[in-house]
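Entry 14. Ran structure prediction on the chain below.
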Amino acid sequence: MEEKQKKRATILLALIAGGVFLFVVLIVLVTRSDNREKAERAEMLARVEEHRNLCFSNKWLMDEELVDKDEHYITERLAEIIKSYEDRRVSICINKNYNDSYSMDELKESIGFVCNEGGEESFYPSGRESALAKHIIDIDKDLPVEEQNDILNGNRQTKKVNIVVRCQANRDNVTRIVKKYSEKFDKAPKNATIKTNMKITKERNGRVLDTTRIARELTEYLDSNSTDNFERSYQTSVVKAEVKASYLKPINTIIGSFATSFIPSNVRGKNIKLASTRINGTLLKPGDEVSYLEKLYDDSDGKKYGKAGGFLKNKIVQVEGGGICQVSTTSYLAFLSAGIIPKERHPHTCKVSYAQSGLDAALAVGTKDLVVANTLERPILIRARVNGGRLIVEVLSYKDAKRGYTYKARTKSKRGSLTVKSYLDVYKGGKKVETKQLATDTYKKLR
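Output, structure tokens:
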């Protein structure tokens, strides 16, 4: 019995000893595991902290990945790149002997970096390189330590960031530069002119610089990411005068003329004299046209019309420029004798004394004009002059301008009627070959 009790006690002690041993072993294992975890975490914290001021991967400055670069390095690289753009120069040569050179500062060029983070862009102008460098390093540093550690171990993809240079031209400054070139190099051509005394002034060719091309190429360069200097040469082009002296020399024949009488000493007469000087010397190439309202009311000569009699409805009133319709009427009749039928012509309200009814040409600002287009194949020159109390308008052209035709205007009306029909008879070799109806005019009685 005692022996059995001893045996049981031995087994119990062995079990207790084994349990104690296992407990001690477990305590040791747990302690070691805890220490290992603490060590690993401490190592992770230290590694993340060590990378606190270094850039994560997938951050690209142009073609360079900035992984593990610090703020100092990134700032210097940004400044180096910016300087390569700020040091560029623009050199423009015109006609091989005129040279201009501009710095980016003089051109007010906008230079900086665009930081693209997942489609969202931020612009950092020149001078903010340090701020951009700090921002690049701080990207993803707000993630938990474990996630930052995964990034460092390559187990987690970091946010991709692209940093590129953006240059932008100052459009206003480019415009100012090309405007300066235009003012310096552009020269308008001067056509040959012919005076009413038939003296011809020879034409002069002009020149033009393609400033549109300069502006386009300069803007494209300044908006690009090229670090090369801009060096371009440009040439002015000749702009030929449209009217040459040789074109005007054959204008030596009167192909149409008409004369009317007036009293030169009164205000109306003075208005006629002034109006005649404003239309005198007008040259019309084939297809060109002239508005008598525009010409006769062009006061760039600094002179003004006086008030004289003119029609208002069917009354005579004092109006500024009264009498100048005699110039348009006389011209109308001169054009008809040259075989030129005006595009636009209007009769007066009432009949006038200085021309046959139906063959007058009234002017009224905004409502009535005499518009003449040169329908001949040759140029014509309008010559208007005053000789005492006579107003003479002549149409001059080449000798063959009328091609052997002559023209005569006439009218037809019933006795006592205020309605008048006008015609232009066409003759060749003394024989009437055609009759053209010009207009049907109805006048009012003067009150």
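The chain is about 30% helix and 30% strand. Will compare against last week's run tomorrow.
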